[in-house]
Amino acid sequence: MSKATYPLKLPLSIKEAAARLAKADGVSLNQWIASAVAQKVGAVETAADSLRRRAGSASADDFSDMLKKIPAGPVDTGDELPADWH
What we know:
Strand content: under 5%
Order of helices and strands: HHH
Oligomer: single chain
Shape: elongated
Mean pLDDT: 93
Number of helices: 3
């Protein structure tokens, strides 16, 4: 496995918490941070893949066509936009 060096600047409070958790896990801070980043990458990529599968072959035009089918009329109570929304 190839490795790359990346200078990471963390707020002191985050670094101290990560160091405490790494020590509790019995691993180096570097290993703990690498594992945390890998976990986040996996979660984001899994979510993106899931959304792509759910979207299938749908397009923005399909979405626009669907929105045009919504009947005009009064908004249901609780579905109103905030008064300051633009």
